[in-house]
Design a protein that fits this description.
This protein is α+β, with helices and mostly antiparallel strands. Helices cover about 55% and strands about 15% of the residues. Helix 2 packs across helix 3, helix 2 packs across helix 4 and helix 3 packs across helix 4. The chain is globular.
């Protein structure tokens, strides 16, 4: 019969407890892929909050914009876990990084709207088109901007956290068709909303 040493039992219990704590800590660590999700969701929330508050990218002040941005980042982080940002020093650092990037992005988005003639008209535009009996094309456009003059001009904004740039050459070679397909869906919708008028995609410059 094998003997059991009490000290060994204690060591095993301590090891198991440490392993459980380590597993919990790993689960609470923000992954790199989570940062893109938080960034994207924060931008979505920011746009919708402005709409709910009856404010626009043109008239909101810097201080209020930054306050809302921080609020949206916190809410986006909470979707991963109530205390995900406060669970470790690393997560707190990542929170500051994603907050700074999101704030800079909203600053640029506001600057672009103020400098141009287009205004955001719709957020999270969902679409679905039955291409054939077996193929269904569906998606969601982050933001649709409109310039309403003699004709109606449409452009779309896609909130991406990557470094991929829009390229006409890639479109012609068939490597970057998503934005073109999404823009086509937006033009179709706003043509339906503006019967008898010319609805055109905005020119890329």
């Amino acid at each position: 019969m094998l003997g059991v040493v009490q000290g060994d039992v204690v060591e095993v219990k301590e090891y198991v407890a440490a392993f459980i704590e380590m597993e919990k800590a790993l689960k609470n660590e923000i992954k790199v892929t989570d940062l893109g999700t938080i960034y994207h969701e924060a931008l979505e929330r920011y746009s919708l909050k402005l709409q709910e508050m009856d404010m626009s990218f043109r008239d909101i002040e810097d201080g209020e914009s930054h306050r809302i941005t921080q609020e949206c980042v916190n809410e986006a982080g909470e979707s991963l876990g109530n205390d995900i940002f406060d669970s470790s020093a690393r997560n707190e650092f990542l929170k500051k990084r994603v907050s700074a990037i999101t704030e800079k992005t909203t600053d640029i988005l506001r600057m672009q709207v103020k400098a141009g003639r287009f205004d955001p008209a719709e957020y999270e535009m969902e679409f679905r088109e039955d291409v054939s009996e077996d193929i269904r094309f569906k998606g969601k456009i982050d933001r649709v901007d409109i310039y309403d003059s003699e004709d109606v001009f449409v452009k779309i904004i896609d909130y991406k956290s990557g470094s991929k740039k829009f390229s006409i050459e890639d479109i012609y070679s068939g490597l970057q068709l998503q934005l073109v397909a999404y823009l086509d869906q937006a033009v179709k919708k706003y043509q339906q909303l503006n019967p008898g008028r010319n609805v055109k995609p905005a020119e890329h410059r």
